[in-house]
Amino acid sequence: MYINPDVVVGIVPLMPQGTNSTMFTQCCEVAICDDQGHCPRCGREVIGFDKSPDERRRIRWDNATAHWKRQKLHQEAGNG
């Protein structure tokens, strides 16, 4: 996938039924920790790079799960 070098890299989407919450960069598809602002492989800025680790974690989680149909998941879990 081509990613414009002037654009901050996002996080690979997570599947709702998955069991792994590890974040992976869209540029190189390598794992990235909350304390890392740049891709460990290519060094590009990754979404949340300029935030604190706690805020970065939330931003990346929101980015990785943005496609989830949360209301439907909530209902399937028997919560509504």
Measured as a percent range, the helix fraction is 10-25%
Query: Alpha-carbon distance between the termini?
Result: 38 Å
Poorly predicted runs: none
Radius of gyration over all CA atoms, rounded: 14 Å
| Main β sheet profile | none
How many discrete domains? 1
Helix and strand sequence? HH
Which whole number gives the mean pLDDT?
A: 86
Structural write-up:
The chain is mostly helical and 80 residues long. The protein has one domain (1-80). Helix content is 24%, strand content 0%. It is built from 2 helices and no strands. The protein has helices at residues 53-64, 70-76. The longest helix has 12 residues, at 53-64. The radius of gyration is 14 Å and the shape is globular. The N and C termini lie far apart (38 Å). The model has no long low-confidence stretch (mean pLDDT 86).
List keywords for this structure.
2 helices; 80 residues; mainly alpha; 24% helix
Summarize the SSE layout with pairings.
Layout (H helix, E strand, L loop, with lengths): L52 H12 L5 H7 L4
